[in-house]
Amino acid sequence: MPPSDPPKLWDQLWIDCHLATMAAGETPYGAIRNGALAVKDGRIAWVGERASLHGAPETLAADVVTCGGAWLTPGLVDCHTHLVFAGNRAREFEQRLEGASYEEIARAGGGILSTVKATREASLDQLVLSGEGRLCRLMEEGVTTAEIKSGYGLDTKTEVKMLKAAAELGERLPVRVQRTFLGAHAIAPEYGKDRNGYLNLVVSEMIPAVAREGLAHAVDGFCEEIAFTREEMARVFKAAQEAGLAIKLHAEQLSNQQGAALAAELGALSADHLEHLDEAGVAAMAKAGTVAVLLPGAFYYLRETKLPPVAALREAGVPMALATDANPGSSPILSPLTILNMGCTLFGLTPEEALAGMTREGARALGLAPETGTLEVGKAADFCRWRIDEPAELAYWVGANPLEQTVFEGNVRPR
Ligand code: NIG
Ligand code: FE
User: Fold this and answer.
1) For residue 272, what are the contacts with CB-CB under 8 A and spacing of at least 6?
2) Mutation to probe ligand 1, out of 95, 185, 254 (largest number of atoms < 8 A from CB)
3) Which of 73, 127, 263, 306 has the fewest Cβ atoms within 10 Å of its own Cβ atom?
4) Mean pLDDT by 10-residue block, N- to C-terminus, for the chain (415 residues)?
5) Residues with CB under 5 A from ligand 2 (ion)
6) Ligand 1 centroid – CA 88 distance (Å)
7) Domains plus CATH for the chain?
């Protein structure tokens, strides 16, 4: 019998690459030039300089991938999307360009409520199909984890249908889908001025149902003059926490409601948007370690002028994530790479902060930091291979997609 080869240590070994590990630390981008990364059983098994590998690559791994000098980064994490919905709001886009504001359109029964009407009428299959097309766009630019919110149902049946559609997307496609219940997005039209009636439905029926069926990881809300007050959100959060779900909030997008401070005090994973966040809000978020999710797509699309207090957030050490907010009204944007650029050009993030925002901090905003978001041993092998000379290029180009390959949980994703 011929002697059999000793078993290989790893399944794959990626060499001839530079790594932007995005691990927090001293080096910009957590970079390792001339690095190597090993995968075993879908997880990252080794990361370091190629020169410190303890043997010839072929002796260490069953499959050796030579990257020709490409950069590897963590797979992108889009931690705030509303990807599941029906219809579109292109007509509203026209109205806004004719002078109507987002709030005026919402108050007149358009806006979120027009998407609610279309989403109620759509079947589960229709929602999955249209959501799939949009999620594929994100994946084409390197997304390996996407959060998807409900919130265009506003009745139990449709909220559940949306979350089931999101779950189905995570099963069909090689991407991690994190689901968030957003029943407190707007008052359902059939409740008219009966805010309490609708809130009762959210806290006593929807949240328990969603929790019971394991349909959501977190509960979100829209704290705004045109949506819910701080006190109303406190009620929703209480019900969420009683049901064992994490919380997060659309806060301070169009006005200052002190929603972010409320969310932070209650231990929220994140407060999102934050254009009108004040000093007290920044301090509360810093104290609690709540992630600030910045959404330049909505800022751009609504042609807002008030910038989120990025310098104050940075100064206070609040972790900053960056996401597409992909939705039919305020951010019909399916390009995470464009959002990296907008994070820099519109909000003044550094390209490194932008990339950290869509990897490490995005994962943290979803409670997934132990699982993904950096190239570190033990995490899921979620990473992208980019044809770039330096990592800042990811935020620099608009409309160039330098993605060569994506690996999700150790499997190379078909293109
Ligand atoms: O994140 N702010 C509320 N929710 C979405 C917009 C939803 C919509 O207009 O359909 C957002 O911007
Ligand atoms: Fe949103």
Assistant:
1) 80, 220, 248, 249, 250, 251, 292, 293, 295, 323, 325, 365
2) 185
3) 306
4) 76 98 94 98 98 96 97 99 97 94 91 96 98 98 98 98 98 98 97 97 98 98 97 98 98 98 98 98 98 98 96 98 98 98 98 98 98 98 98 97 98 90
5) 325
6) 13
7) 10-74+376-413 (2.30.40.10), 76-365 (3.20.20.140)
